[in-house]
What we know:
Elements (H helix, E strand, L loop, with lengths): L1 E3 L8 E3 L2 E4 L3 H10 L6 E4 L8 H4 L4 E3 L36 E4 L22 H14 L27 E10 L1 H13 L3 E5 L2 E7 L6 E7 L5 E5 L2 E4 L3 H10 L23 E10 L4 H4 L6 E3 L2 E9 L1 H7 L4 E9 L5 H15 L5 H10 L1 H14 L16 H4 L2 E10 L8 E8 L5 E6 L4 H20 L3 E5 L44 E3 L14 H21 L10
Parallel strand pairs: 1-8, 2-11, 3-4, 3-12, 4-8, 5-19, 12-21
Antiparallel strand pairs: 6-7, 7-15, 9-10, 10-11, 13-17, 13-20, 14-15, 15-16, 16-17, 18-19
Helix pairs in contact: 1-4, 1-13, 3-13, 8-9
Amino acid sequence: MLLDAYSVPTDDTVHADVCIVGAGPAGITLAQEFAGEDFKVLLLEGGRFEFDPMVQSLHDARAVSDHYLPSAPLSGRRRQFGGTTNLWDHHTRPGDGRLRARMMMAEEIDFEHRDAIPYSGWPFQRSTLMPYYERAQAVCQLGPLGYGVDAWSGPDAQPISFPGSRLNTVIGQFVASDVFTHRYRDDLVLAENVTLCISANVVGIEVGNGPVAAHRVRVATLAGSQFWVEAACFILAAGALENTRLLLSSDGASPAGIGNEHDLVGRFLMDHQAFRLGVVHPSSRELFKSLALYDARRVGPWMVGGSLTLDESVVRDEGLLNMCAVLAASPKGSGSSAEQSLKWLYGLRRGGLSRDVGKHLVRVMLGADKAVAALWTRGMRRDSAFGEFRGGWSQTRKDEQKLLEVLEVLVCCEQVPDPDNRVVLAHERDRLGRRKLELHLSWNEQDKHSIRRGRGILAEEFGNARIGRFQPWVDLDGPARPLWPGIHHPMGTTRMHPDPAQGVVDEDCRVHSVPNLFVAGSSVFPTGLGYANPTFTLLALTLRLADHIKTVMASAPKVAALQG
């Protein structure tokens, strides 16, 4: 059933057994799991099916502390049915026109406590989630749970053999965004016990006067109307940032907000540091074809691609953060000294003038042809936080392959769980009268050390394997530093821990101090989960939560019908 919040009378009350806030991958998956159950489900989404700039403006926030992050950092979030699946844009050729995101399982070490990583460790091991990873594979409409190299290799798609054994090859499978934005949308509209309510912005959670439980949530529209939703169980699935805002701004019972008895809500904000680390000048042009395993390519009906990761022994023995590297073939100009100087000059708009300006201007002028080629290539290829999203370079014709010159090395790095990296409420308010968010997110010295050490290992191993010469692309400070275009993988902020003094939610994703309030999504991650896109793991966690909610609701009294 579909309901538009604009049609609900002001001050009316809508009743449900389970109320889910947010229709991104987590909220959609929860509603899908509850379809056909004997309880009534209300799924609230602040956006609509189509993108609306005015609705999107409700995500406005600012970053105040880090010179890697733009002042308006939430370009990677989307307030729309499907959430950020609407922003997925991996594609390949030959392709089918669908846009995708790379999915991987996290590694076992990503769940462990590591002495070298403060605040690391999950309440359970990866084995706890394995059955749910399998189910998440079906939710994503992918093939078997096959992430081993052997399942996807072939004569022209073999893993690189590294003599040092410090790098491994892992496989990612690509999920199409329309699975969530269209397929499940249609299923939910037809489900008899599920009501999808669009344009419904939850602006507060009210705790009842009796036992400390969530009683109702207040919903507002951009037209100025407001109504209430009462339910037996509430699940916040609005994303790591919006979940935090809802808890902090619901301060009727406590000035610090709901679940914030220990000043933990909003802390431990993490993102994956994703940027171009450098380029490899290949030892042979044949590599552009023989390294097909590392290309984002189609294998039968599936789209897959290999990545290079640090071996677990290296991560453990050297106390490093986890990271992976993707290879992307690029044509003339990519990674050239002229392009590097262009990047350096571009970075000056943040760092002011420098005596090195003249040197870089000369390098751009002397390599003008390569600078222009690099700019044209990047404009045509839709660069973003993770560099190039278009695959298929190993499948191009011979005349096209002659244009390829380098292999770009694009990295995705884990970030230290740091309580000083956090989200707080700003004084400025949005169109609904809610306080906006202010982000404090920095790379500390441990983050930088891991990136530098990983870069050194990659350079050495590329040389040892005779792949080619590695040329670094960025410095971690100064005008040539990586510039995040926005937060794309927000994690933490409502971290999971069995001790209420160390986490906002418990192992079942329940807010410690509120028995009927749960949190779904990557905000409950205690760590940045290595290099893996958080969506696949958050889906596994969501499926585990769905099973728990079904058990809870089996003995709960049910409402007769949805009203309003």
